[in-house]
Amino acid sequence: MTAHEKIISKGVVSELRCVCAKILDKAKELRYSEDAVFAMNLAMEEAFVNAVKHGNKGDENKNVVIEYDVSDEKVDISVTDQGQGFAPEALADPRCGDNIFSPGGRGVLLVKSYMDVVEYNEIGNSVRMVKYKS
Q1: Own/partner pairs for 109-115, CB < 8 Å, 24+ apart?
Q2: Which among 85, 76, 6 is positioned nearest to 50, based on CA atoms?
Q3: Domains in the chain and their CATH numbers?
Q4: C-alpha span between 62 and 83 (Å, rounded)
Q5: Bigger pLDDT: 98 or 24?
Q6: DSSP secondary structure string, 67-113?
Q7: What Rg do the C-alpha atoms of the chain give, in angstroms?
Q8: Residues 6 or more apart from 132 whose CB is under 8 A from it?
Q9: Can you tell me the distance from the alpha carbon of 25 to that of 17, in angstroms, rounded to the nearest whole number?
Q10: Tens of pLDDT along 46-92?
Q11: What is the pLDDT of residue 103?
């Protein structure tokens, strides 16, 4: 059993959380571990919030496109906003220096920590995240 879908959603976090629940339900049906489901949930929440808040600057007229494929071997999720993008490699490490005390800047690090593959497109307005079942 696999699930593949492309969802174009208005940039509203509550709508995106419904998509997250749908993806996680499919992963649970395929018996992904509790740790994997937790990791995917955290990573998706961070990616969705970043797309709405930072990418689309909270503009509910801008869309967030979510494409996902849930299979017995992996969950593959792409989140694309209509923003200008960013350079993920230019982000300061939130674990170093004065950044330790900054309230933001941890989402990208969390996504990288919890997912097996994290790739951004060239302009930085789309992230692809993969979690393997193993």
Answers
A1: 110/42, 110/43, 110/46, 111/43, 111/46, 111/47, 114/39, 114/40, 114/42, 114/43, 115/39, 115/40, 115/43
A2: 85
A3: 3-132 (3.30.565.10)
A4: 9
A5: 24
A6: EEEE-SSEEEEEEEESS----GGGSPPTTSGGGGG-SS--HHHHHHH
A7: 15
A8: 73, 74, 116
A9: 12
A10: 999 999 999 999 998 999 999 999 999 999 999 999 999 998 888 77
A11: 67
Position 40 scores a pLDDT of 98
* Residue-level pLDDT at 33: 98
Decide: helix, strand or coil at residue 44.
helix
Pairwise CA distance, residues 86 & 104, whole Å: 15
Q: What is the pLDDT of residue 99?
A: 73
